Amino acid sequence: MPKTNKIIKLIKKDVRKLRAYEAPEIPCKVKLDAQENPYSLPENVRVKILKALKPVLLNRYPDPGAKELKKIIADRIGAKTENIMLGNGSDELIQAIIMAFGGPSKKVLYPVPTFSMYGIITRSLGQIPIEVQLKNDFDLDKNAMFSTIKKERPAVIFLSYPNNPTGNCFSRGMVIEIIRKSDAAVVIDEAYFDFSKKTFVPMLKDYENLIILRTLSKIGLAALRLGVLIARPEIVREINKVRLPYNVNSLSQRTAKVVLRNDRVIDKQINAIIKERKGLYKRLLKMDGITPFPSEANFILFRTDNDASNKIFQRLIDKGILVRNMNQKGLLNNCLRVTIGTPEENRRFLNALKTVSK
Question: Per mean pLDDT, which range of 11-15, 152-156, 286-290 is the poorest?
Answer without folding.
Answer: 11-15
